[in-house]
Amino acid sequence: MYMLETEGVIIRVEPDYLETESEPDENRYIWSYTVEIENSGAAPVQLMTREWRITDAKGRTRVVKGEGVIGEKPVIAPGECFRYTSGAPLPTPSGFMSGQYEMRRADGAVFNAAIPSFALDSPLMPATLH
Q1: 58 burial class (0-12, 13-18, 19+ CB within 10 angstroms)?
Q2: Residue 34: what pLDDT?
Q3: Is residue 93 within 8 Å of residue 62, measured between CB atoms?
């Protein structure tokens, strides 16, 4: 699991390679990722927008931006968590994702909560020693 905290918002991500949905012969590799957003601050926060940077093994990056997540703009109370699962395709058997959520506090202040960079490695990717 990958984790990062920004201004009292803790973001945890766990990716999972979906072998049954992937088609390596067609250069189509699919991952799901589960995100947990925890508010360890003293006031509620609302997730307003998302921005993902998805990079494949050849260094090609695409940016995905949008309102909320999975059709929601959740308000997360102090001590509470919001959890969701989504997915991402790649044309290569490995890559990585990172990004940020725009969060708004109850007083109207806005900040960007960083999403930790996480690896998308399929079992089809040969292991290498560094």
Answers
A1: exposed
A2: 98
A3: no
